[in-house]
Amino acid sequence: MPGNSVATVDGEAVSKTDFSHWLAVAAKSSGQPNAAVPDPESDYVKCVAAKRKATPAPAKGQPKVTDAQLKTQCKQEYDQLRNQVLQLLISFKWIQGEADTMKVAVTDAEVKKSFDTQKKQSFPKDADYKKFLSTSGQTEADILQRVKLDLLSNKIRDKVVKGKDTVSDAAIADFYNKNKARFAQPEKRDLRVVLTKDKATADKARAALDSGDSWATVAKKYSIDDTSKAAGGKLPAQAKGTLDKELDTAVFSASKNELEGPIKTQYGYYVFTVTAITAASQQTLAEAKETIKQTLQSQNQQKALDTFVKDFTKRWKDKTECSKGYTTSDCKNGPKATPTPTAPATDPTQQVPTDPSQQAPTQEAPAATATPSK
């Protein structure tokens, strides 16, 4: 391991100079332009002193924050920044290395075009862009590097999924036959209802309707269901199987325009009438074909990406050695990664993480919105 490096990837060094630079960027990206990187080399003496100065005096009767507690905070902050920066710098090497292996490249013209577009969107005024560079600690070369890696990531992804959008008619038909319920619409019925707390009140509501009172009048007087009450008792498009069990059975066995109830349910007593019936329907294979095709294309592409990322991560982790004090889960000699439901941050099929702290400034630099999420 070269003495001036924090890690090597396939024999290529990640220099301490780059690490220190991006560590300062990460600290500033926390939202505090003058934020300093915690100082492990001096056992966090400066960091503790700064925190002590910024820590307000405790309220009466409350204990004073100890130096040991402040030191713990400093160490936690440093470890978080260190891991984020190492992840970023290692990802640069992994993605560039994979691009070289796959013979994927981007030209300087492509990088400049993407950079200019994003810069114009994020910073209409050049003065704002220069201010961002000053406050973030980044250089234009840093941003161009991130834009380049972002473009490489996209090209790698395109190459991985190329040809995976081919779906046969047989596969579409098989999916349709196994998932017919997904392309069916159940019977639906529009209703007018009155819901009451007890049967006696429900009987009164039904008697009023039988005598010719309007649904709006009866619902307003007797119903406890605010939604249907406000609509004159209307309850539109209820699908079979979605109502309370007792009510569902009664509704879908009732004749149209016949007054029914009271029906006892867990919510109270219903008096209702069915005002419209929409018959159940089933999409044909021809009607569902395009939707199924898109679904299978997406599944095939995602499967290809998942397989690739798993292999990519293993291959490049095996090529990554980290110096003592700089080991992370991306290092062959580092701790095991904590399982998460998301893809690895160095997944080259996703956009490159462009800010080591994952906290973009108020006005973002070009490509600063990219995040390594699935």
From TrEMBL:
Q: Which UniProt keywords apply?
A: Isomerase, Rotamase
**Entry annotated with the keyword Signal:** no
**One MF term from GO for this chain?**
peptidyl-prolyl cis-trans isomerase activity
The record, for Gene3D superfamilies, names:
3.10.50.40, Porin chaperone SurA, peptide-binding domain
- Residues covered by region (Disordered): 322-374
Respond yes or no to whether keyword Isomerase is given for this record: yes
- A Pfam family cross-referenced in the UniProt record is Rotamase_2
This protein's name: Peptidyl-prolyl cis-trans isomerase
To which species is this protein native?
Solirubrobacter ginsenosidimutans
